Amino acid sequence: MSRDHKPHVERSRIEALGGYIYDGYLNGYLSVARAFGNWHIEGLKGVNCPLIAEPEVRRAVLTPDDEFMIIGCDGFWDVFTNESAVAFARRRLQQHNDPEQCSHDLVDEALRRCSSDNLTVVTVCFQKSPPPRLFPRFMARRCMHFEKQL
Prior knowledge:
This protein is α+β, with helices and mostly antiparallel strands and about 150 residues long. The chain is built from four helices and four strands, in the order H-E-E-E-H-H-H-E. It has helices spanning about 10-15, 75, 80-95, 100-110; strands spanning about 20, 25, 70, 120-125. The strands form two sheets. The chain has a two-stranded antiparallel sheet with strand order 1-2. Residues about 140-150 have low confidence and may be disordered.
């Protein structure tokens, strides 16, 4: 349901407002093209500023298959792919089914992965019960042992 708001994704809008992208950073400073704050950085102030706080809004019809949503800032998504965040959150929700604790767990894991930016995560659950297990917890394994006879 999301797309990254990195400067290179919004290059035409940024350049139309007099901004530039240097080494992947907006005006050489920010790794995002949309943010709240950061107005202290020179060149990111005023009406025609290349940095905007306007959110991207999408509507979606939820189904019974929709389990949860993770909302996170760029410091979080710098160290998690969408898939790895969902897998991590799913495991945590299966353990304790607590979205607030899951958000804390995700931030702790982002710190463990050496995120060097600010970290904010909100987990929103759409179901009362924890996510179902997609794979059996324990899979039977066959082991064969061969002994060499002398």
